[in-house]
From TrEMBL:
Coiled-coil parts of chain: none
GO molecular function: 4-hydroxy-tetrahydrodipicolinate synthase activity
Protein known as: Dihydrodipicolinate synthase family protein
Pfam families hit by this protein: DHDPS (PF00701)
Keywords: Lyase
Record-listed pyruvate binding positions: 206
Length: 308
């Protein structure tokens, strides 16, 4: 299946049972809601998917479950977040072997690689698989900035096709577009900058709160791309308090709690993560409940024609 790198790609949460095993029925329930809302791709095993807490077998199971649920309707991507080049290559090849349609690739974890080392890492993984790749540019959380000069070296890898733009610097989208034109697709990767990213030319979104609010997220994307900015802005302003739950160290717990309130998830996380408690839990619940109390009526967004 061809990955077009357009539309909304949920960084889907991994569902766990009370016994800390994969909760596939709940995972599939959430994914069906995402499909119905109109997502155009899926990322499993990302930060929100508790990537570093998953075993190889669990990743394989999630790929299989995702493929069975979505059929041939949308591409399924596996996130690669590893400490060594060797392990990243192994994970990429495992994903390809088990039917994934693409990869999201982070820079090396823990070790703060130099620009040269990061480029060589990306090249090695890209050259070891035929799967299309989206690089994850998030220096705020992962301390490595993928620069324009680095992208200039990476453009020779034809399967490096997209960038998840999470620098928090919205002008970076323009810099990449000015330098490379359409060579790299760009997907906005920060919920609190989603509309801004789309207006600056991002081709899609990798989103977090979409896990709990898929319709609103896809509606913002579709309206923005159709030039119906005022309608998109109205929903986006309503969404902002929820979106801020995505730029928090406990974003996984925040978003899983929101999924509980919308009926498509559970709070179960894998230790060392623990469920929210105390004052912070009360604060997050208030944000969710206030948002649900003022939830907007959406326009008929699914049939909106996207402007080219």
């Amino acid at each position: 299946m061809k990955v077009t790198w357009t539309g909304v790609y949920p960084a889907i949460t991994t569902k766990f049972t009370d016994n800390d095993e994969l909760d596939l029925p709940l995972f599939e329930k959430n994914l069906k809601f995402q499909l119905e809302a109109g997502i155009e791709g899926l990322i499993i095993g990302g930060t929100l998917g508790e990537a570093t807490a998953l075993t190889d077998e669990e990743k394989k199971t999630l790929i299989k479950s995702s493929l069975e649920t979505v059929g041939h309707t949308i591409p399924v991507l596996l996130n690669i977040a590893e400490q060594t080049t060797k392990e990243a290559i192994r994970q990429a090849q495992m994903a390809e072997e088990h039917g994934a349609h693409g990869l999201m690739l982070l820079p090396p974890m823990r070790y703060k690689a130099t620009d040269y080392e990061t480029v060589e890492y990306f090249k090695a993984v890209a050259n070891a698989t035929s799967l299309p790749i989206m690089l994850y540019n998030n220096p705020v959380d992962y301390k490595i900035l993928i620069t324009i000069d680095m992208l200039d070296e990476l453009k020779e890898c034809s399967n490096i096709q997209a960038i998840k733009e999470s620098t928090r610097d919205i002008t970076n989208i323009t810099r990449v577009k000015n330098k490379f034109g359409d060579r790299f697709k760009i997907l906005g990767g920060v919920d609190t900058l989603a509309l801004e990213a789309l207006l600056m030319g991002a081709d899609g979104l990798v989103a977090g709160l979409v896990c709990a609010f898929p319709e609103e997220t896809v509606a913002i994307y579709k309206l923005a791309k159709a030039g119906r900015i005022e309608e998109a802005l109205k929903i986006y302003r309503w969404f902002m308090p929820l979106s801020e739950l995505d730029i928090d160290p406990q974003l996984v717990q925040n978003i899983k709690l929101a999924e509980v309130y919308t009926g498509i998830g559970s709070e179960n996380v894998r230790a060392p993560r623990l469920k929210l408690r105390g004052k912070r839990r009360e604060e997050v619940i208030k944000v969710i409940e206030d948002s649900l109390a003022t939830r907007p009526t959406l326009p008929e967004y699914k049939e909106i024609e996207i402007l080219s």
